[in-house]
Amino acid sequence: MVRPSWAAELAKPPGKAILRIGGSIGVHNVGEEAVFDVPMLEALGTSRFSTSTPWTDGVATWEGVPLAVLMKAVDASGATIRATALNDYVADIPMAGLAEDGAMLAFRRDGELMPVNNKGPLFVLYPFDREARLQQQSFYMRCAWQVARLDVL
């Protein structure tokens, strides 16, 4: 696989690291991992959608980096992303369909960075209200909040 020229230049995070990515990735900046702070995630390009979730009240506007974009940025090669939360909860997310399904690693809710006590710092979620097919257990099980680590398997 040919790596984009910018991939070799992933700098170490100057701010507080909120995400570590390991496993089958080709781009590293700290040992065998890719480590990001919020500005680094923002620099990849963000998206935004409004949706309700089974775990929050009402509709909120979520902003973050599309998981497909993040996986491309770290030159991921695998079938599954394993998201691990601060409390060691694990959710497995198929790599297939990330872009089509709108999977996002959100770091803002209604314009504000999410604190740990309110599902932050990172929340894997989908635009559930966009399509009825996303409103089923198989998609809900792929979600996790308080995400601190992703591993490509």
Descriptive account of the structure:
It is a single chain. The protein is α+β, with helices and mostly antiparallel strands. It has one domain (15-152): Sulfite Oxidase, Chain A, domain 2 (Alpha-Beta Complex), CATH 3.90.420.10. The protein is 14% helix and 34% strand. The chain has 4 helices and 11 strands. It has helices at residues 38-43, 67-73, 98-101, 137-140; strands at residues 19-23, 34-36, 47-52, 59-66, 80-85, 90-94, 104-109, 112-113, 123-125, 144-145, 147-152. The strands form 2 sheets. Strands 3, 4, 7, 8, 9 and 10 form a 6-stranded antiparallel beta sheet that branches. A 5-stranded mixed beta sheet has the order 2-1-11-5-6. The longest helix has 7 residues, at 67-73. The radius of gyration is 15 Å and the shape is globular. Residues 1-7 have low confidence and may be disordered.
